[in-house]
Amino acid sequence: MATNDVRTERLKKLALMKEVGMEPYPAESARTHSNADFLLSFDTLANANTVTLCGRIMSLRDQGGLIFIDLFDGTAKVQAIVKKDEIGDTAFDQLVSFVSVSDFVEITGNTFVTKRGMNSLLATAWRMITKSLNQIPDEWFGLKDEDERYRHRYIDMLLNPEVADIVRMRSLFWNTIRQYLLTRNFIEVETPVLENTTGGADARPFSTHHNALDIDVFLRISAGELWQKKLLVGGFPKVFEIGRIFRNEGMSREHLQDYTQLEFYIAYADYIEGMKIARELYLSIAQTVFGTTTFEIFGHTVNLADDWRIYRYSDVLKEHYNIDPLETSVEAIVSALTAAEIPFEARSMSIERGVDLLWKKVRKTISGPGFLVGVPVYLEPLAKRSREDGRVVERFQILLAGSEMGKGFSELNDPVDQRERFVRQQELRDAGDDEAQMADMDFVEALEYGMPPAFGFGVSERLFSFLCGIDVREGQIFPLMRPKN
């Protein structure tokens, strides 16, 4: 039956229900047990007077005076058996006339074990609690087209247990991180999503207009990096935020425009200590959420319990391109990009952007786990310069399965140095690089009051998707979709 025909037929049933005084959308239910509790306590409930279960009808098999219903309430699926001689002619006939697959019903009855040994509920009464107007697809076929799966994600979750599991695991993932930090005396904070100046990352922001203040503002591109460091200035030694961030950039297996990210900051710590914390955190996530430390991710085998190798930025680029990123030129980089067949935008080419493109190609070959260190100062406006070599910063990136899966660094707290780096970033923006960071002089002013030595770290939900072995859109609960025409 076509979708429109199904809806028309169900609207007729809805009207008939109202004619006989049956409420199709009551506000309350008389449920006594969840389906999972019913099955768990089945033997104990055998001596109970009655049990009332609720849920969506996933399938309905009419065998004359006997109907089998598969009832799902989000906790478990229970088989309900409706016999005409148990509930009476009127109630049975109304069920046949009014009820359809996808409806939510309330069924009261007693425990019953079928000849095949299935623990079931034998009905003595039933009630409609939500009449559906559209029918969910057959459980065995479901939604196959990816576009339809994402547009009707709620149906995808209902029919595919692995998709529902992603939702549950995603919650456990973020709460594992939250508990890890809370038990170590971090304070969870919320910082502004709308900003006058974006900071904390190289990314193109979304912009909008604030009507009440009559100003243009940006949606943040980091989870409050500069705000959290202002909290360090304000005397808080350990802070973190898990929140949504927005980047107006391309979509891929690894990149989204709005997603959840963690950032945390610790006063009186540096990136060496941060490496230990990050590795410990990732192992905690792996063991708590996934029950393993070994993962197969897009052709890479990764064991987080292995020793994490150190990769030096200059050494990697020298080996692959014969270029030293600390002593190079735009001309040399363009030549290397061309030889490596890496697409680039000549109009806005700079040493910063070109070196980053070269690195991103090499990165895909590294399985990890490992730490990338020795990144040039010109690629990181917010990190402290290295104590051994002032041309690089005290920053690490976690490398997993050919991708960067988290970044931490000793935070720059020298206001003079910070101002100079912001000025350079503004020059890049003025030259056409709209991913370069904006100069936030309010943050520089905060640093002038003094910020203690600190370590900061950030990781996005990409880590969750990679450990699941799925792309980032599949890892989201409701991915953004272009509207249908």
Write a structural description.
This protein is α+β, with helices and mostly antiparallel strands and about 475 residues long. The chain has two domains: about 130 residues, Beta Barrel (OB fold (Dihydrolipoamide Acetyltransferase, E2P)); about 260 residues, 2-Layer Sandwich (BirA Bifunctional Protein, domain 2), CATH 3.30.930. Helices cover about 35% and strands about 25% of the residues. The chain is built from 17 helices and 18 strands. An eight-stranded mixed sheet has the order 6-10-11-18-17-16-15-14, with helices on both faces. It has a five-stranded mixed β-barrel with strand order 1-2-3-5-4. Strands 7-9-8 form a three-stranded antiparallel sheet, with no helix packed on it. Helix 8 runs antiparallel to helix 10 and helix 12 runs parallel beside helix 13. The radius of gyration is 29 Å and the shape is elongated. The model has no long low-confidence stretch (mean pLDDT about 90).
What is the CATH superfamily of the largest domain? Answer: Bira Bifunctional Protein, Domain 2
Oligomeric description of these chains: single chain
Question: CA-to-CA gap between the ends?
Answer: 24 Å
Roughly what is the average pLDDT, rounded to an integer? 92
Q: Which labels suit this protein?
A:
485 residues; alpha+beta; OB fold (Dihydrolipoamide Acetyltransferase, E2P); BirA Bifunctional Protein, domain 2; 2 domains; eight-stranded mixed beta sheet; five-stranded mixed barrel; 18 strands; elongated
Give a topology summary.
Layout: H1 3-19, H2 35-40, H3 42-45, E1 51-62, E2 66-72, E3 77-83, H4 84-87, H5 89-98, E4 104-113, E5 119-130, H6 146-151, H7 153-159, H8 161-182, E6 187-188, E7 194-195, E8 207-210, E9 215-219, H9 225-233, E10 238-246, E11 258-267, H10 271-290, E12 294-297, E13 300-303, E14 309-312, H11 313-321, H12 330-339, H13 351-363, E15 370-373, E16 395-400, E17 403-410, H14 415-430, H15 441-448, E18 454-460, H16 462-468, H17 472-475
Parallel strand pairs: 3-5, 6-10, 14-15
Antiparallel strand pairs: 1-2, 1-4, 2-3, 4-5, 7-9, 8-9, 10-11, 11-18, 12-13, 15-16, 16-17, 17-18
